[in-house]
Structures are given as structure tokens and as C-alpha cells.
Design brief:
This is FAD-binding oxidoreductase. By secondary structure, the protein is an alpha+beta fold. It is 24% helix and 25% strand. Helix 8 packs antiparallel against helix 9. The two termini are 38 Å apart.
């Protein structure tokens, strides 16, 4: 199938005209086209999987699980398989993903290309640390196998490389054993940012999975108030008695859906403030530990189909940045003051603690704290605010997540990603004519002089 059509990512911005291919086998990926990028399930937030005026290879039909060893917990699959499809296979057999983003509707290849991280990054690192092998299509050179020990420079340029080193065909992944399909969770409320950082630093509150929701419209002595949510995979003895006999069975859930795009005015400072008040109160009441199933703990938004329509037809941007740990509290305080005073409404604001950076040359994580915000494009001065936030992030030695970006400048990118030159040397060797490219690559001038 080949057709020319408008295309957008999950945030519906930007929308671009691309030539779409949908191969049935991943070896039908053509490494010799003039301008092409592979695309998974379109859950990134920007133009990383768009190629305006060029080719986009859709990989959702390249979703075959090739090998699954239920004893060692090793899986090899085509890049187009979704994490949801993997979970349906492995969870009933006592395994889970070693690292999971906030949605299970992400392709395996996309998880590698974005080097996704999860609630456990401070303990376990990012997705690429558990990938043992990748098969990659190179322009004009066929297929190459790479791993941390075989062609390691290609491997670490591909992990977090936003799909620009070639087309990912197969991925081999080490899984994590679990005793049940449930999590023992607990919530801890904090009245402001200082209190939230105290909770993150408290060893008695630490857990393998930690994440905090923040009220980004609060100000004054409530600036940065939020709820720290912690959890670990539940052991059998922690489960309710009625569940212990079937610990891997997940309860049936009837998902909600947003049927149409809401009007642009629906999300405004008043409506989001009311939501934040209600959400903070509801979550803060959960003081005692409780048992949650994997889907509700790791993927709460997946239970609302088409939730991106809440932001209207004009779409939104997600702004996610990480600040190194020394000075992270002060930097986040300044950033939150700017956001709160601007009155840009974000009811989805997530703060996470991150561990040391991995080996991916363009991977996002670093030791520190990351904040992700969803911001409606109804506000005409939004990009001006984000440019100002970029400067603050750079000043504090941080960076913006490329998988969540739709508007970062080339100059800011180069200041944020010090290993870009190392990555570019590998890219130029593998793809000297830059046939594998994207709208993001052109916007950031990847391959062009600084």
C-alpha cells in the first residue's frame, strides 16, 4: 500500500503531508529510498516519525513475536509489535517489561529508538539497557546485526537515536520476572515542592517505582504541591486471598473514550484548577497501601481511548525536560513559577526521579529529575514561554526529550546533547547521504553544521 496523506503524532501537532507505505514484512523496508523514516504506533509527541514531502514506512503490521523463552525471559520480535501485545503474552507466564513508559500502545522499535524510561529509572535505567540485540536495515548496505558487544557503536547510536540510523527490523529483549499481575502501591501527599522533594529523598518512601503528579497551576506556599505515588510488584502473600489462586489474571476493565475533539476553550486555567483541586484531594486520601493491577498502575490514561481529543483539533505539545540532581530543586522551582504565572493550563504534569545516564548517544535520561507537561496550543504565546524554559534548562545543564518535542531549535539541541558529534560520526558512516531522515532531523539540522 502506498498513499499520500496528512499525518500527525499523538499530540496532533504538527500535521504534515507524507507518502505512506505499509509493508507486510519488515524486509520490505526499502533502505534505498531518497528520504524515509520508519513509524511505529504514532505515540510520540512531535515530528520524529513524520517526514513532510518524503516517505514514511508504517510498521504496525510488522508485529510478529519470533521467539519467547518463558524460562529465561528472553523475547525476540519484529519492531512493529506493540508493548500491549507483548504484555498479553508474557504477563500470564510470569514476566513483565524491564522498563515501561506511560502507555502500552507503543511499538517495540519505537521504545528502542526513543530509549523510553519509566517509573523505575532511578533503580533500573532505561529501555536500552535490557536490549541484547537489534537487526537494522542500512541504506544501500542491507541488514546488520548489532548489540552491546557486536557493532556496539551502531547499537548505542540506534538506542535513543530516534530511528535515524536505519530501519529497526528485529529486537531481542530481556524481561523481568514477576510473582503477580499486581502492584502494591501507596500515595504520599506533599503541600509544596519542598515537601515533594523531601518525599523523593526519604529512604522510607523509596520504592522500585516512583512518580509524582504535580499541580502546575498552584503558586505561593502551594507551589509544586503534588502526590508521590510509589509501588512494587506484589508478592503472592500481599494479594487479597481471593486473588492469590489466579495472580496473573487481570480484572476486566471497560475503557472510556473521548468520542470527538473537545472545543479549544474546554481546557482553561479555571477548568484545570478545578480538576487539580479535586484530583489532589482524591489522591491524597489514599494514605494506606493498596493493591492495583498492572494496567491501572502503569497505564492509567490507556483506559481513556483517544484522550488526546481533550485538547481539541488544534492539538497540544508535551514539554518534558530533565535537570541534573545538583540544583534540580531550585531549577524546578523557577520553572514552575514561570509556568504558574503564565497560567498555561496543564492537568497532566508528572515529576520523576532519574538515575544515571545510559550509553545511548542521544538518550534523554540523566541523573536528576524530569518533569513532563501537556500544554494546549490554544495559547498563542506558548512557544515563547517554552523558548524561555529551554534557556533555563540549558543554564542548569539539562535537556529536552526528543520523543516529546515538536519545536526545539537546532542551537538549543546542540547545547543539550553533548554526544551529538559522536552520534553524527556513526550516522555519517552508516548513511552518508542521510536517506533515513525525518521532519525532526531537518528541524534540528542533524547532519548540518552547527
Amino acid at each position: 500500500m502506498v498513499k499520500i496523506a496528512p499525518l500527525a503524532s499523538w499530540n496532533n501537532y504538527p500535521k504534515q503531508i507524507c507518502t505512506l507505505h505499509r509493508p507486510e514484512r519488515y524486509r520490505q523496508f526499502s533502505p534505498d529510498v531518497e528520504s524515509a523514516i520508519a513509524r511505529g504506533l504514532g505515540r510520540s509527541y512531535g515530528d520524529a516519525a513524520l517526514n513532510e514531502g518524503g516517505q514514511v514506512f508504517l510498521s504496525e503490521r510488522l508485529n510478529r513475536i519470533l521467539v519467547f523463552d518463558p524460562v529465561r525471559g528472553v523475547l525476540r520480535a519484529e519492531a512493529g509489535v506493540s508493548l500491549d501485545e507483548i504484555l498479553r503474552l508474557i504477563v500470564p507466564r510470569g514476566w513483565f517489561l524491564p522498563v515501561s513508559p506511560g502507555t502500552r500502545f507503543v511499538s517495540l522499535g519505537g521504545a528502542v529508538a526513543s530509549d523510553v524510561h519509566g517509573k523505575n529509572h532511578h533503580c533500573d535505567g532505561s529501555f536500552g539497557a535490557y536490549v541484547s540485540a537489534i537487526q537494522l536495515a542500512l541504506p544501500g548496505a542491507g541488514w546488520v546485526d548489532c548489540s552491546p558487544t557486536a557493532n556496539p557503536e551502531i547499537f548505542w547510536a540506534t538506542v535513543g537515536g530516534m530511528g535515524l540510523t536505519g530501519f529497526i527490523g528485529e529486537v531481542e529483549l530481556q524481561l523481568r520476572p514477576i510473582a503477580s499481575a499486581y502492584v502494591r502501591a501507596q500515595h504520599h501527599a506533599a503541600s509544596n515542592l519542598d515537601g515533594l522533594f523531601d518525599l523523593f529523598a526519604d529512604p522510607d518512601r523509596d520504592a522500585p517505582y516512583t512518580v509524582a503528579w504535580i499541580d502546575c497551576l498552584s503558586s505561593g506556599n502551594k507551589l509544586g504541591r503534588g502526590v508521590l505515588m510509589t509501588g512494587h510488584h506484589a508478592a503472592l502473600q500481599e494479594l487479597p486471598i481471593g486473588v492469590r489462586s489466579r495472580p496473573y489474571d487481570l480484572p476486566a476493565v471497560k475503557a472510556l473514550s473521548v468520542p470527538v475533539n473537545l472545543p479549544g476553550w474546554a481546557l482553561n486555567p479555571l477548568s484545570v484548577s478545578l480538576f487539580n483541586e479535586a484530583y489532589f484531594a482524591a489522591q491524597a486520601r489514599k494514605r494506606a497501601p493498596f493493591i492495583a493491577d498492572l494496567r491501572s498502575f502503569f497505564y492509567p490514561l490507556d483506559n481513556i481511548h483517544h484522550w488526546n481529543r481533550i485538547y481539541g483539533a488544534g492539538g497540544f505539545v508535551q514539554y518534558q525536560f530533565v535537570i541534573p540532581e545538583p540544583g534540580a530543586s531550585a531549577a524546578l522551582r523557577e520553572l514552575l513559577k514561570r509556568i504558574a504565572s503564565s497560567r498555561h493550563a496543564s492537568f497532566l504534569a508528572v515529576l520523576k526521579r532519574m538515575g544515571p545516564a545510559g550509553s545511548g548517544m542521544l538518550s534523554f535520561p540523566m541523573l536528576g529529575y524530569t518533569l513532563a507537561l501537556d500544554l494546549s496550543l490554544r495559547d498563542p504565546d506558548l512557544f515563547k514561554l517554552l523558548d524561555e524554559l529551554d534557556e533555563l534548562v540549558i543554564e542548569h545543564g539539562g535537556r529536552v526529550y526528543l520523543a516529546k518535542d515538536a519545536r526545539l531549535s537546532a542551537a538549543s539541541f546542540r547545547k543539550m546533547y553533548p554526544r551529538y558529534g559522536e552520534w553524527l560520526a556513526v550516522k555519517n558512516r552508516l548513511d552518508p547521504d542521510h536517506q533515513v531522515t525525518s521532519s525532526m532531523a531537518r528541524r534540528l539540522q542533524l547532519g548540518s553544521a552547527a
